[in-house]
Amino acid sequence: INAEYMGTIFVFACLFAGFELVFFFPSTSTKTTNSRTEMEMEHETTIIAQDEHVAGPLPVNRLEGGGVSALDIKRLQEAGLHTVESVAYTPRKALLQINGISDQKVNKIIQAASKLVPMGFTTATDYHRQRQEIIKLSTGSTELDTLLHGGIETGSITELFGEFRTGKSQICHQLCVTCQLPVDQGGAEGKAIYIDTEGTFRPERLLAIAERYGLTGQDVLDNVSYARAYNTDHQFQLLMQASAMMTESRYALIVVDSATSYYRTDFSGRGELSARQMHLARFLRMLLRLADEFGVAVVITNQVVAQVDGSAMFAANQSKPIGGNIMAHASTTRLSLRKSSGEKRICKVYDSPSLPESEAMFQINLDGIGDAARD
Questions:
Q1: Which residue ranges in the chain fall short of pLDDT 50?
Q2: Cα separation values, 269 from 197, 272, 273, 275, Å
Q3: CA 186 to CA 206: how far, in whole Å?
Q4: Are 249 and 270 in contact (CB under 8 A)?
Q5: Which of 228, 261, 257 is nearest to 168 (CA)?
Q6: What is this structure's pTM?
Q7: How far is residue 115's CA from residue 65's CA, in Å, rounded to a whole number?
Q8: 338 and 325 in contact (C-beta within 8 Å)?
Q9: Angle 143-146-152 (CA atoms, 0-180°, nearest 5)?
Q10: SS3 letters for the chain?
Q11: Residue 157 and residue 299: Cα distance in Å, rounded?
């Protein structure tokens, strides 16, 4: 009896031990599976965020996932920050100046934005690969496109400066049409924003250029958003409106013609020189931010002023672009335009980080910018 009793105890002990083993291993496997699922989900979320970043800027309401309230997001939008990128690029000092945004909220906003926007180091190889994918807008002239290594570069600021009747506004009109073309035809398949400060915008020029490319005139006009600016503060406000517009539709070009005309009248004398340059710097910084965020080509025209110093006596061209060093540092590529015979114009690379100093001749035709006729 004692042996049977001991055997029974042994059997029950084995059964009990086996039950523990069966219970333990599935539990461990389930925990491991759950952990793997969480890691996979986190990895997939990162990939989705990266894909969305490549596809375009993220709307600012994505910060709600980082704990930012809807009211604070509305305040950011009212301050002209409509994308997560714009928030990430804005200095902390500027965020603190927004009404209703406290120091603690700024910390939360910056933390949420930094998780969605990569702002660290990358290799030169990766950046070179990104540079190779940059779209360039055709100017309508083969020789001018060759000079610019393909056309006007998106994601940066291109400045056109020269005297009156050198073709600055004509090139801007041309780009408003070519930016709507397919990429393989020298376009970017996007809309255009045109901020006019001198009253030189003419829709009929767009219709003539559209007919040249076989585009429907009404569609071309509908894809150009036009606004007349009336002072320096107004043209800055128009940029904030443009930022909101570009979050809702695909834009490829921003034109400001001219970017400096009002700065010559709204600010006068050396007493306001500092204020003028500061305002101009903020305006150009906003343009550069839009180029970075949305990958659009920013084209600005600039006026020139006669040189009155001693070096002007020995210079072939006795004029220089206005705006000083502020304008020179903000513009990625600076193109100087001058007149030639008849409707021919000459474009010279004045300053560029990648283009050599050289010249090309183009011509202003009834259907837009084209190659100069051979004599």
A1: 1, 5, 11-12, 15-17, 19-54
A2: 21, 6, 7, 11
A3: 17
A4: no
A5: 257
A6: 0.81
A7: 11
A8: no
A9: 105
A10: CHHHHHHHHHHHHHHHHHHHHHHHHHHHHHHHHHHHHHHHHHHHHHHHHHHHHHHCCCEHHHHHHHCCCHHHHHHHHHCCCCEHHHHHHCCHHHHHCCCCCCHHHHHHHHHHHHHHCCCCCCCHHHHHHHHHCCCEECCCCHHHHHHCCCCEECCCEEEEEECCCCCHHHHHHHHHHHCCCCHHHCCCCCEEEEEECCCCCCHHHHHHHHHHCCCCHHHHHHCEEEEECCCHHHHHHHHHHHHHHHCCCCEEEEEEECCCCCHHHHCCCHHHHHHHHHHHHHHHHHHHHHHHHHCCEEEEEECEEECCCHHHHHCCCCEEECCHHHHHHHCCEEEEEEECCCCEEEEEEEECCCCCCCEEEEEEECCEEEECCCC
A11: 6
Longest distance between any two alpha carbons in the chain, whole Å: 127
Give me the pLDDT at residue 25, please: 40
Residue 16: how many other CB atoms lie within 10 Å:
10
Looking at residue 46, what is its pLDDT? 42
Measured distance CA(326)–CA(37) in Å, rounded? 52
Cβ partners under 8 Å of residue 142, min gap 6: 371
